[in-house]
Amino acid sequence: MKYTQVQESFHNISKCEECSAQLLDSDNAMVIRRLWDAYRNMWSSALCTTCSGLTENRTRLFVNKTDEALHCFNENKHQPDQICDTCSNAYEELRNEFKQLQALGFACADLADSMNSTAQAWSVKYGCGHPPIEYIPVLTMTLSISLIPLIFYLGSRRLTSYRG
What is the mean pLDDT of the chain? Predict the structure, then answer.
């Protein structure tokens, strides 16, 4: 059942005094009213209205781009070392589309979950998106900077020994 159908049913029950008294207010726990409140809160906190209705075309575009990226992953799963190169365009298009949806405030929970799982596959499962870390330049810089105080200390000791 769709959210709009549940919403319409609840409002129809609420309008009719006899129905409302019998269905919504007849028990102390007010189960139906509480369920409706929980359902409505979940719908709004997950930004579900942004994924349907007004932005349906953008949502479909994002879903299509997700399907393209996942299809590329599946097509190349037997060559995992080539997935990063082969699927980078599809993944970057998907990522850019999601960033645009976020900027517009249209990234509902379903789209965010979809992007998170795709990003997880891209970075963790296939190891893409992480440039290789080169340790030699980092170690050289760290060692150089660490030796500066020692050089100044030895230099100052030598200068003071010449004067004395």
Answer: 80
Q: Please tell me what DSSP assigns to residue 129.
A: S
Q: What is the pTM of this model?
A: 0.58
Q: Which of 141, 95, 143 is nearest to 115 (CA)?
A: 95
Q: Do the Cβ atoms of 123 and 130 come closer than 8 Å? A: yes
Tokens representing 14 are: 């609420």
47: left (phi over 0), alpha (psi -120 to 50) or beta: left
The closest alpha carbon to 51, from 94, 101, 100, 95, belongs to 101
pLDDT by residue (tens digit) across 115-151? 999 999 998 888 887 666 677 888 888 888 998 988 8
